Fold this sequence. Notes:
The structure is a single chain. The chain is mostly helical. It has one domain (11-190, 199-397): MFS general substrate transporter like domains (Growth Hormone, Chain: A). It is built from 20 helices and no strands.
Amino acid sequence: MSLKGFWKSGHPPTLIMALLYFDMSFMVWMVNAAMAPFISQQFNLSAAEKGLMLSIPVFAGAFLRIPLGLVAEMIGRKAAALIGLGITVFAMFYGFYFVASYTEVLIMGGLLGVAGASFAVALPLGAGWFPPERQGLAMGIAGAGNSGTIFAGLLAPPLALAYGWNTVYGFFAIPLVVVMILMWFFAKEPPDKVERKSMASYLKVLAEKDIWIFNILYWVTFGGYVGFSSFIPTLMADQYGVSKVSAGQFMILIGFTASAVRVIGGYCADRFGGIRVLSFIYVLILVGAIGAAFLPPIQLFILFIVLMSAGMGVGNGSVFQLLPLRYPHAKAITSGVVGEFGALGGAFIPMAMGFSMGTFATYSGGFIIYGITSVVALGILLIVQHRWTTSWVGKGGKALSADEAVD
């Protein structure tokens, strides 16, 4: 598969706008996590309060993905993206002017969920222009916008140190406005819609068995990415005693690794099959989680975190190579549904980490639980692979060719 042929097969400006939309939204979604050591110090938060603060943006982002996906199906993905950006800009101004207590931080976390819900629109917006055999790479490129974690970790802590953490919300509003303007002028609505349907018709997907299998698969890969990205600053400060600025910037470690390999994951899934790639990935995640659970010296701990992050990123790309092949005419709503449950996995991890520390005085339990979920996902994938490869997808999870396609 040549990259030149890939770009010619779709509409590159829309894919780039989808990437920027997701990137800046993800940056904003993770801003409280990057500033957690600062916020925790100001309000003297307990382990449980830290976990709640970090979980609310993730929960909100998860629950809003289905509604935003429905909006995208009903009025168009570009329009939904512009609405999401507008609400997120409003949230930044709320944080800049009004957040001054722990309760208001929690409210702000709920507003940040709109940015997290961008996933349901960004991926089908960018990938909707590309043919099925190139969907994995297109989804991977749009999905690489979760590299926004890098910007949150890189920029938020030093800005918070220099100007105060409230001011960071004001700074982060600026690129959102820029992307909103660019989206208006350069993105085009994808042509892959066949007809407008009622909301009830789109929601019927929730009754299908396969969508719940995808939910579990993505719970592990994207849930792990979001959960550990949001919690790593707190863990590094509490467990390894690093400074508040350095702790926040450890988000870059997970963000860069998982985002860079997400594109690779989509490409490999296109070429070798998403089922094959995921089967390997869940084993890789398990190894990383077991190693991290021992909380070894910081250099070794970082190695295990990078291993897990790489598995998460490749897994994210692979899941979204398979999903549009299974649901080619409901990309936005299915992306919203699967994205919601993936994000719920991310909300679960900070709470599990906080519970583990509060109950056992160690964070090891959170890693052990996460490792178990990867085993469960692998088992489910092995069970369903024969049915999938004899109905709607080719051997190993590759897209069916035109003469192989079945109704």
